[in-house]
Amino acid sequence: MSEPLNCVNHPDRETLLRCGKCGEPICMECAIRHPVGLRCPQCAQLRKVPTYDVSSSHYPRALGAGLGTSLLCGIAAEVVPLFVPLFMVSFFLALAAGAIIGEAISRVTGYKRGRGLQVTAGISVVLGSLLATLVMAAFRFGAAAVLALPAVVLNPFYWLYPIVAAAVAVMRLR
Q1: Same domain? 15 vs 82
Q2: pLDDT of residue 92
Q3: 3-state secondary structure the chain
Q4: Is residue 4 classed exposed, middle or buried when 0-12, 13-18 and 19+ CB atoms within 10 A define those classes?
Q5: Are 23 and 79 found together in one domain?
Q6: How many domains does one find in the chain?
Q7: 16 plus 89 within the same structural domain
């Protein structure tokens, strides 16, 4: 039996383990299970999965793509019910819009995913929906329509589209 050594990272701990790659003595707290045996943290090279490694430069692109797509989908969701007066049309438009917005954010960021992009998608959908409502109200009724916006936003049925679309967009970026 070999003589106990001290861990490289914790000199006060005795150990009989060694890294399978570099041979340095490691304790059980430092040992990382690897397909070829136990390794030290330096040799295991732990890093995030590239899909979830989102840099700060991705967020402005995601917000721009999300807002632009959300504005276009929101305008479509405001116009289509004028021609097809069915209540459930808004629900199905919200499903499609959420998928489109989530896909746009995903493509612009190089198919990245993560919680930050999910939050960005949710914010984009809500802001885009509000902007689309404002644009369509101004287009239909003129500049005075801005005064009626609080009455529209306080209607609980108004929030069906943004909530469903945001949920789908967020789920797309999980």
Answers
A1: no
A2: 92
A3: CCCCEECCCCCCCEECCECCCCCCECCCCCCEEECCEEECHHHHCCCCCHHHCCCCCHHHHHHHHHHHHHHHHHHHHHHHHHHCCCCCHHHHHHHHHHHHHHHHHHHHCCCCCCHHHHHHHHHHHHHHHHHHHHHHHHHHHCHHHHHHHHHHHCCHHHHHHHHHHHHHHHHHCC
A4: exposed
A5: no
A6: 2
A7: no
Q: What rounded mean pLDDT belongs to the chain?
A: 90
Do residues 78 and 35 make contact, with C-beta atoms less than 8 angstroms apart?
no
Find where tokens 């967009």 sit: 169
Kindly indicate the confidence band of residue 118, based on its pLDDT and cuts at 50, 70 and 90. Answer: very high
Residue 78 shares a structural domain with residue 141: yes
Question: Are both 78 and 157 inside the same structural domain?
Answer: yes
Average pLDDT on 98-103 reads 97
